[in-house]
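[agent] plan:
  1. take the single chain provided in the ticket
  2. run structure prediction with default settings
  3. attach structure tokens to the ticket
  4. add a short note for the reviewer (M.T.)
[agent] executing step 1
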Amino acid sequence: MRQGIDPAVRPFVLALNKTGRFRTFASCQGHPLRPSWPYVAFYGALEDAQRLERMLRRAWAQGRFNYEWEVSGHFDGYCRPSFMVQIFDLQNDSSRTSLRVGKIRNDFLALAGVVEQFQERNEGSEANLIGKEKNGGSRDAKTDRDAQFLQALLANGPRTGAPASWTSGRFRDMFSAIFAWHGCRGSLPYPLQADIRTENLLDLSRWCRFVDGYDPLNLRSVEGRLCCLGYEGAGGWLSLRGNARWFLFSGELDLMARLVARMRRAQHAEPQALQVHWEASVRFDVAMNPILVLYWVGDRGCHEDAGTDMAIIARWFLDIVDKT
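[agent] step 2 finished; step 3 output follows
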């Protein structure tokens, strides 16, 4: 048993699933009186999410939307990467009161049109996800693992809406994912997200390190499949107003998931490990580089505790890099 798809968001949901490259698992058209903000969450490959984000930015620049939409990445209850299309300005509290139901409905129709263009540029079948071979027919092991993962997701068909039963592992998985989405939405500091969206974070990180090499956690010199671009307190980076603490990482998505899994285990199974609650999100910078953001925003009284947590998270990052 599952809830139906909200009428306004249905065209966009169907368009996403029709591509054969995405599988939606939660959505909402927005309900201002609850409040519940409009979004569609889905599974898919990182490369396809990057391409969709690029198309949404182009459509926004062409004036096709009333609101600026973005693709963001998170990790579900099993720390598997998933993505969500949401309104970028919703993370700025002052923008939420300006939402209009009619404009959101028109935007969902425009979003469906953008996704239809996505489909037209593909060969349009599951084979694109699960069987494409490169240059003479050889595929590496990672490509095979990704293909099997996506094949298993698509085999279950599109499912949208929060299920009303906990009777199977699949439903528990979806519920955990939805809870993770709602826990993260809107809490990423808006100035930080704005910088990510308008800068090439890899170039900016190199510049910040060049002008001020202060690195109290000794992270920015570490190179590998997962790299720390910067964090609150590192030289060259602007400090956010208030009590925000944050890390920025670039690299492979599976290593990002491993770091997030370690953080979540500490928060839920080892309650004494971290002093405050941290969140995780993946955002795309202006060059479409996926950037993992670990962040905390809380009361002033917890500011020192968050600083202690940063040293612990830094140690976890170094352990993961050493093992890879």
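[agent] step 4 note for reviewer: Residues 10-184 form one domain.
[agent] ticket updated
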